[in-house]
UniProtKB/TrEMBL annotation:
<feature type="region of interest" description="Disordered">
    <location>
        <begin position="1"/>
        <end position="20"/>
    </location>
</feature>
<dbReference type="InterPro" id="IPR017853">
    <property type="entry name" value="GH"/>
</dbReference>
<comment type="similarity">
    <text>Belongs to the glycosyl hydrolase 13 family.</text>
</comment>
<keyword id="KW-0378">Hydrolase</keyword>
<dbReference type="Pfam" id="PF00128">
    <property type="entry name" value="Alpha-amylase"/>
</dbReference>
<feature type="region of interest" description="Disordered">
    <location>
        <begin position="396"/>
        <end position="424"/>
    </location>
</feature>
<dbReference type="InterPro" id="IPR045857">
    <property type="entry name" value="O16G_dom_2"/>
</dbReference>
<dbReference type="InterPro" id="IPR006047">
    <property type="entry name" value="GH13_cat_dom"/>
</dbReference>
<dbReference type="GO" id="GO:0016787">
    <property type="term" value="F:hydrolase activity"/>
</dbReference>
<feature type="domain" description="Glycosyl hydrolase family 13 catalytic">
    <location>
        <begin position="31"/>
        <end position="427"/>
    </location>
</feature>
<protein>
    <submittedName>
        <fullName>Glycoside hydrolase family 13 protein</fullName>
    </submittedName>
</protein>
Amino acid sequence: MTQELTSPSPAPQAPGSGRGPGWWRDAVIYQVYVRSFADSDGDGIGDLRGARERLPYLKDLGVDAVWLTPFYASPQADGGYDVADYRAVDPLFGTLQDADGLIRAAHDLGLRVIVDIVPNHTSDRHPWFTDPELARQRYLFRPGKGEGGELPPNDWESVFGGPAWTRTDRGDWYLHLFAPEQPDLNWDNPEVHAEFEAIMRFWLDLGVDGFRVDVAHGMIKAPGLPDIGHGAQAQLIGSQVLPFFDQDGVHAIHRAWRRLLDGYGDARDKQVIGVAEAWAPTAERLALYVRPDELHQAFNFQFLNAPWQTDALRSVIDASLAATASVGAPTTWVLSNHDVVRHTTRLGGSLARARAATLLMLALPGSAYLYQGEELGLPEVTDLPDEVRQDPAFFRGGRATGAVGPGTDTESAPDGVAATSGQDGFRDGCRVPLPWSGESPPYGFGPGGSWLPQPADWGALTVAAQTGDPASTLELYRAALDLRRRLPGLGDGAMSWAPAPEGVLAFTRPGVLCTVNTLGHDVELPAPGTPLLSSAPVTVQDAAARLPGDSCTWWAI
């Protein structure tokens, strides 16, 4: 049931509100995966009160805003991305009063708050779906193929593996591009549009500063729901336009939401934003989501997926900047999130390379997103026991039957479902709860245990262990974010490439030059200026600089 505040009052505004150049254009936004951030009540699951208690840590880290993953009422079939009530807080995470308290506390600290909205699908426990007649108006139901309708309506596959259709006891089928517990909404129905606009106003009234739009590319499907013609469809996401993703019709929805956000903000002298989680095959198509009358930001997954090579990185950076510049939007950079392997592991398992990638990202023009724990240099946990995993793709893809891990090539799976037909199923490895203090689990995560087991060797990676150590990854992040805030040449603005030896990237921002050595060995070059910050010790002698392998350095010029 939708909750109400017992003593509602106007939520305080985040400091710096008002119509200006746009706070989001160079903001550093920190993703809090709520269930893994901080636990206040000892049940082993992070919650809103725990997150509120740790907000001073984020203020000291130097970020501008916090993005909270879903904490709404949910059966938790997909970590809260199966929402049963968009206006209620799930008891796992607290109450609506806890959400209100967190937003107020964040604003008191000068932090803005962005919350997830999940418009492509709901939970199968949502009141709309549990009503058989209402469901067939507001979700995508179709008759099956075959003599008795025993075959799915088309060949679409779930992102999590297996068919994207489930048959009901009435004999028809409903579409779910993710888990069967997440039926896709019918955005041809105006009642769906009206409901989500009302949901957004509800949270805006509570004081949030924006929305991260989950699957922002997914609400509209191609007319007739045409077959794709082959399997392994999840591997095509982000590489080509699919009949169920990145259809042009989604942009009308985002334009309507931009009008809502701007109108709300104008009436309250406040800037509220929309952020697209959109997988698009090219930077140019991604830029369509951030045209002046659409959303404010879009995650740049092309950068996240770029290999650690100068040509590839430069190509992605150039394409990203050119595409967003063409529509007057800032570029948004990200290296890790709750759906991908942590970049410490993904970039070859090297902490040095991960630190360098972070300094590169924070030196680029635009906004940056950080995923909780990356500031600690946390690696992906690759050895979680099968029995503790909760990623639905792990079970849908058939991986629960054997000991496999990220990157494992499995040739077959039960029930004829190809193990490679959906996501890899190992997202739990980046969702292990944070280590805050102590020498053994749960490392200060909460008074009890943790919903996923933490590695026994994380004692040296805790916040407490790294605080004050100038060589630690945490202090590198703090220093980088402090410099980024203080140096006017960083953040939004212009950049230019500079000459550099093979294997090295160099570019200038006003007053700053950034060098990135992507090679596994030292490189010597003329010292371009005075070192400001480096991901690894850099040596300057006799006007020559020696850049360590897999390092990034900021220079004052």
